[in-house]
Amino acid sequence: MTELKSVVDQALDLSLIIDGHNDLAWECRDNFGYSVEGLETNSKTDTDIARLRAGRVGAQFWSVFVKDDLAEFDVVKATFEQIDWVYRLVARYPDTFRIARSASDIERARKDGLIASLLGAEGGHCFNDSPATLRMMARLGVRYLTLTHNHNNSWADSATDEAIHGGLTPRGIQYIHELNRLGVLVDLSHVSIPTMNAALDATSSPVIFSHSSCRAITDHPRNVPDDVLVRLAANGGVVMITFVPQFVSGEYYEWFIGSKTDPAPEVTLAQVADHIEHARAIAGVDHIGLGGDYDGCEHFPIGLEGVDCYPALLTELASRGWSASDLAALAGGNILRVLRETDSAFANPTGSPLLI
Question: Which pLDDT tens digit goes with each residue over 302-331?
């Protein structure tokens, strides 16, 4: 065990943990009146400052998520409220958090002992098909856009809705080009397979999956099939493996969509590690990351109950023979590379807007 700890410590010396997706902002909207108080320790959430520190999380993409069944203009208002919550979080705890927009921002925050706080918008509905609103969100620091949430929007098909577009509409393809121009990462979690492929056809920048797992292990529509993982590697992107039980375990998924009269099947940290190993086998070690989805669902696998558990996952992988350098790539090195490759566009978009 001492030897495994040494490998994990070496990995975390090489790279901080950068998590791709956390829904604490929505949790605080839903249950705490949008308050940012009391987050030093909080047993009612999966995330608090003490556990982020224990989990060695050095950078967090906070999901600025709103449900896609809200009225059109309520969606935009609520998204800006979510962005405001992240800024208020950072202002309330300046000795813990710092707003980050770039790879260099993350590295400076790490040097200063702070947790870099990035914004990721979940669902293209959030800007109500208004390119101007999308551009303003980018100016406020939104670094990725998940193209859909659980339902289709007017230009893209979701993984969990009945297809109406066959992937992306022509306007959806224009949005991919505009996101590339803005340096906002295209996030393919939540989208249908045809949408994944259409986005990969259209993009000129690396894409990400901020919180998805592997369909070859668990046949859930939110997971990524092997042929797309192969394309992701060619694109230079990253799949950030998530811990959501119904994405991790086929048995749990069957229980989840069933009557739920029996106790829930056990889901474990080791099963999450299986997804990570499969993604590495298909896409390669340079194209994997972590996207826990904490505070985004009710239950988590045994051993991954909160944001303090990332080192335990790395220890499991070390026990399977992973090197410190491979663990560092998974923990944060790969997504840091993708950010760095798109930082210049984000800081200074060139050319005229492609949509008005």
Answer: 999 999 999 999 999 999 999 999 999 999
